[in-house]
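Sample entry (189 residues):
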Amino acid sequence: MTAPDFTRLPDDLPAPSDDGAADHLSGLKLPDVALRATDGSLVSLVRLPGRTVVFAYPRTGVPGQPNLAADWDRIPGARGCTPQACAFRDAHADLLGRSVARVFGLSTQDGPHQREAAERLHLPYAVLSDRSRALAMALRLPTFEAGGEILLKRLTLVIDDGVVAKVFYPVFPPDRSAEAVIAWLDAAA
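Predicted structure, serialized as tokens:
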């Protein structure tokens, strides 16, 4: 069996539907939950001044290894973490030039796995690990189960001084997530 190419999205990727699981997030003040970042720091999103963009995703794949679940590509919204991370990488300077103070990725994967992906993909931003799902549970973030793991559904939050200003959910296609945030920032300017 050939390992999947995580950098490309299949043409027949199923789109997730809006199940309303993120409707409660707009205007919500974030809880004070410290998350370990790939740069080794502890980050509590509520304590960060200014505008922060956080994109949550299920998990990045490991080159040469199969997907977490055999039907991964058929789960709406599961596939596309690497293209989404790379889109935010490529748009990082554009985001910072549009009043965004910082960008983070967020998943329930552990730190070593996230560090490997951040280094391999040359990400200019840190990725936060919510391995214990403390933030996910406190915010009631949408999740799904695959391969015996509970994973975050893909969403993007624009956070202003610890309060959710904008929620992008569902996010599809994932490689256009950063583009959607930039369009919203431009329209809101």
